[in-house]
Design a protein that fits this description.
Its main location: nucleus. InterPro entries: Homeodomain-like_sf, Myb_dom, Plant_SW-associated_TFs, SANT/Myb. By secondary structure, the chain is mainly alpha-helical. Helix content is about 45%, strand content about 5%. Among the domains are: about 45 residues, Arc Repressor Mutant, subunit A (Orthogonal Bundle); about 50 residues, Arc Repressor Mutant, subunit A (Orthogonal Bundle), CATH 1.10.10. The longest helix has 18 residues. The chain binds a DNA duplex through α4 and α7.
Length: about 350
DNA sequence: AACTTGTCCAACCGCCTTTTC
DNA sequence: TGAAAAGGCGGTTGGACAAGT
């Protein structure tokens, strides 16, 4: 379809958003919620196309956005997820609450990619660049160690699925990232995700549990309060404006954002289906009008069930227990990724938002 | 102080998918 | 059922700023 049709109609503003535009859009969305983006500019009094408004909201004005530097845990997680998913920034962002795909993409391009290259790792494949490492499922166990300084890889095969290669041991996901597809051409990461999602429900110690544990164990003053204690790194004028604006608004405006689950009835924010759909793919629970948006939300929180034991046991992941050539049906890739990235302080408790 | 170069990141572009009529 | 509109995504760009000369 190409360019959004609304952009063609009139001469619309482009470029950086002014504080006034930000305020108009923010006021509109907080008052009326997200509906049809194409009608937002007109109704909000903006000379922008709907697409631009959507982007501005998602990438900048959304109240649950985290601001400031990426933590080490987030960095590790991005590396691991990128290894698994490639440049699927939206999917990666779905696993990092408060971060946008654009933000992660920029972070990757400006920092992580270079960091990997400095370490002699091909950012595209997450394999060492120094020597040719075309590892196949057949010869991987015999040749993998010869081609890199890494310890010999561990192969985990599932019937009818491509093999996963785990760099081992003690598997330091924070450096090596955890899982490498050995066959990029046939490996479909989404299949892994589907598999993972099933595991969230079925596996007693799912990725959702592990992550949720870390979220619960963090304090509750995070991005839910919009500002929290996080620093604003951007010098962008609009950034500063928004920062101040949100600060002020949290006190004086006619909406309220609550971090406490118990108080969500009073929250005046509404969230469009698009956003909720996106969030639904992650274990975080958002509700609208008391409506449960995910199955997990209707169940007793898995977070509370395994809490510290999960973190403790999985941080010291011992892959000696894993079979070398087969994986259990409910093996949860994300569980291990998350467990090995100590998330305990980096992820804030999710917002629970309701339409007014 | 002036200029050049490099870096970062917000925003745009264009394609694909999904939804609506 | 198909076309148009809208939403979503990843790649790319350009401007602001910092660092170097």
């Amino acid at each position: 379809m190409g360019r959004h049709s609304c952009c063609l109609k009139q001469r619309l503003r482009k470029g950086l958003w002014s504080p006034e535009e930000d305020e108009k859009l923010f006021n509109y969305i907080t008052r009326y919620g997200i509906g049809c983006w194409s009608s937002v500019p007109k109704l909000a009094g903006l000379q922008r196309c709907g697409k631009s408004c959507r982007l501005r909201w998602i990438n900048y004005l959304r109240p649950d956005l985290k601001r400031g530097m990426f933590s080490q845990q987030e960095e590790d997680l991005i590396l691991s997820l990128h290894q698994l998913l490639g440049n699927r920034w939206a999917q990666i962002a779905a696993q990092l609450p408060g971060r946008t795909d654009n933000e992660i993409k920029n972070f990757w391009n400006s920092y992580l990619k270079k960091k990997l290259m400095k370490q002699g790792i091909d950012p595209a494949t997450h394999k060492p660049i120094t020597r040719e490492v075309e590892v196949t499922c057949e010869n991987i166990s015999s040749t993998g160690a010869e081609h890199s300084s890494l310890p010999p890889p561990l192969v985990i095969n599932r019937p009818n699925e491509p093999a996963f290669l785990l760099t081992h041991p003690a598997i330091d996901f924070s450096l090596n990232a955890g899982i490498i597809s050995t066959d990029k051409q046939t490996f479909d990461p989404s299949a892994t995700l589907d598999f993972h999602q099933a595991a969230v429900t079925d596996h007693p110690v799912s990725y959702g549990t592990a992550l949720g544990t870390s979220m619960r164990s963090s304090n509750c003053t995070g991005h839910g309060s919009i500002i929290g204690a996080e620093s604003i790194s951007s010098d962008n004028l609009a950034s500063r404006m928004s920062y101040l604006f949100f600060n002020e608004s949290s006190v004086t405006r006619d909406y309220q954002i609550n971090n406490d689950l118990e108080n969500t009835v009073n929250a005046a924010f509404s969230w469009g289906s698009g956003y909720c759909n996106k969030v639904n793919s992650s274990p975080y629970q958002f509700q609208q009008l008391g409506e449960t948006k995910s199955e997990e939300a209707s169940k007793p929180s898995p977070w509370s069930q395994q809490e510290q034991s999960v973190i403790t046991s999985h941080n010291a992941l011992d892959f000696g227990d894993y079979h070398l050539t087969s994986m259990p049906e409910d093996y949860d890739v994300f569980q291990d990724l998350y467990a090995s990235c100590t998330l305990t302080s980096s992820v804030d408790r999710p917002l629970l938002l309701q339409k007014p």
